[in-house]
Amino acid sequence: PPITLRSLSEAIGIKANQLMRRMMDLTGQLVTINTTLDEDAAIELALEFGVELAIVREETAEDQFDRLLEDARAEETAPEHLQPRPPIVTILGHVDHGKTSLLDYIRKANVVASETGGITQHIGAYQVEQDGRRVTFVDTPGHEAFTAMRARGANVTDIAVVVVAADDGVMPQTKEAIAHAKAAGVQIVVALNKIDLPGAEGNVNRILGELSAEGLIPEEYGGDVPVVRTSAVSGQGVDDLLATLATIAEVYEYKANPDRPATGTCLEAEISEGRGVIATVLVQDGTLRVGDAIVCGEGFGRVRALFDDQGRSIQEAGPSTPVEISGLDAVPTAGEKFAVLEDISQAREVAETRRTRSRGASLGETKAITLENLYSKMAEQKVKSLNVILKADVQGSLEALIKEIDKLENDEVPVRILHRGVGGITESDVMLADASEAIVIGFRVAPEDRAVSLAEEKQIDIRRYDIIYQVSDEIKQAIEGRLEPEI
Ligand code: GDP
């Protein structure tokens, strides 16, 4: 909060009149008891009266919110409190390869029949148990949702299952999915699905080769990517898939501290008639309880009720548990983080600060990287690498481009190609660029309409070329700060 002459007077025990008079002498300006001072001025003015003013910064509610999330991320700070938690899994892959069917099969086969015998409801995520080991699935498949969350700063996924239909093989969206998963730095497991189809087995070797070409070397080829044969129709291999996921969780030791205020991410939210705002959240650290003061995005409130993925009312939810909550006063957006604060007034304070801020948000500085601002962002140490998404008209030019870009070795900012592909610039490319602070380079290809509008909204730099050396030239110039801004 700002320091007024009144509060300074109270703090140092000097009459406000005296402070005002001295202040006017010093500045030559009219002041009132409500005139505010910055810290240095307050310290100086106090010194005029022989008082050494120490400014103790009280943690604001927003600071506290940030700190909770920070702590939650720095899980290793208190290893003695950490306990294993189930892995959080998202399913990605080409359209029609069986993402939804696999999610449905896993849910139906493994969720204990609900006591009421009612229909299990969809709440955006669910948890299953196999041999005493639990796995949490995010129930919105596809890399668009995955990357949209990441663009909001939410990394909820530990493991991505990339579904590849055995009768089809690696397709354009499979490649996108792999790029998105890699850019997020999550573990990858491949489900070679539709293995029940006649002739599927005969394609397996070809597909393993296609996966290797995308940098996913299957375990059976000596790599580290498990490839599990599955069928969402017969259920073949689904247990194997669950066991593989649980084993990865054991190897990577995903952990969290259940004995702290909960933090996590909103997966989806809506207003429901009669129940108010209903949000599905994933608890990522700590334990969420009925009655907790919570803030999520611009919403806040006390958790009125908690429901698990089978619609049962519960009192608390620990790490990696998806729950439906009611009690927020505004609808948060998927991907926004939540945190439990000490009391409801703090939660209100954070939410209200955000509401005011978002009204004036359009004035905010752009965060997106462009070739033009690369150099200044480098100088401010805001970029560690130049991330590039590369699309070209044909495979030949793509390879030639990659070769040229690889030659651009430099120590300051390595150039990382997050995704490469043949074809026009898609919405998915722009989303990946947004989530990964990348630029998009199109070589003799145009962006699709939806990609153009999303790029405008997110201020993503899409650059188009038709001469190979121009691409590497401009990148080089940008890194060296010699790139002339485009008119
Ligand atoms: P998504 O677009 O990736 O979510 O794919 P869907 O789950 O909607 O599946 C697309 C189609 O493939 C549907 O008709 C499914 O019934 C079918 N399908 C999915 N998995 C399998 C499978 O393992 N075997 C067979 N034979 N068909 C499958």
UniProtKB/TrEMBL annotation:
Annotated localization: Cytoplasm
Domain of life of the source: Bacteria
Tr-type G domain span: 84-255
Positions contributing to GTP binding: 93-100, 139-143, 193-196
Similarity field: Belongs to the TRAFAC class translation factor GTPase superfamily. Classic translation factor GTPase family. IF-2 subfamily.
Role summary: One of the essential components for the initiation of protein synthesis. Protects formylmethionyl-tRNA from spontaneous hydrolysis and promotes its binding to the 30S ribosomal subunits. Also involved in the hydrolysis of GTP during the formation of the 70S ribosomal complex.
Protein name: Translation initiation factor IF-2
Gene expressing this chain: infB
Shown stretch of the complete protein: 558 to 1044 of 1145
